[in-house]
């Protein structure tokens, strides 16, 4: 049996473990976090990714955890309502698309992997090719041999750095930063997304149905310099500078940051690589082709990529180079279509001037009364729908059918 190490226990890593197990491989998942991470922001699952979940038998579980969001409200600096929008339209969701908290989706996928070994509080520190596999060194000092190693460890992938070199060669910044954190429930309104746009920056807060707390989102133009990932104080200071003078409840949100248990701040970037494999090492999900949160398709790319990679490796019959090549050939057009959404979406997420904000909110107020509204809505959602279906999936294995 082929032993595969998957670095990263998120959506892509757990989905890949599930499909490899059902394709006759023996996967092991190693995750840097000390315990399962159940937080995170809400994510969308669309198109081909819904087919993947259906073939896993997980559609019902995922739909049961839909966020239930119903409305987006745009507010001015005094908290007055500028416009409202249906939550599904705001998120570009049509038909059977699902919105779910990332932590809920990861938990569902992880539970479905059954007897797959998950090693928490550990990570890969070195990779050494051998005659017939890879010798892997872990942070806790252990060494193990695997036939294949797959990096599913996100935008700042350790496996990618070890196998392909510095991340600066592959990351393409989109000119904006994003910050996400948990805030007290009083900041939110149940099943409503509250949005305060200002030139060059946007703040959002939402609370899903029955949630004990709320989530805050900060989007802003990237500064000339940014603090390191582990510098929480520096990140809070950066947000304070970026949103100085903001209205609505932004000063209160900034004051609440020291108590946030999960502040995440990073540049919005894409990963662009000429190849996603090197010898017996491959990449999947954000590690290989991050589309950025602006695309709305990162989760779907991870689910579809895991499915396609497992199928390609199985069909290659013990020839990893052939499997990786088939995986790339099938996935690249799908990745390109979904990465292309990011810059288009960003233009509507962070507006450059007060005039643009007035125009956007005026159009949103008029939309319900405009003739041909349904055609207009369909046109808005069409690029996302087309990109989410821009792949023909390989057939599932008989045992997972």
From TrEMBL:
Listed Pfam families: FAD_binding_3
Superkingdom per UniProt: Bacteria
InterPro entries linked: FAD-bd, FAD/NAD-bd_sf, FAD_aromatic-hydroxylase
Molecular function GO terms recorded: FAD binding
Originating organism: Micromonospora sediminicola
Limits of the FAD-binding domain: 2-161, 268-337
Protein name listed in UniProt: 2-polyprenyl-6-methoxyphenol hydroxylase
Annotated signal peptide: none
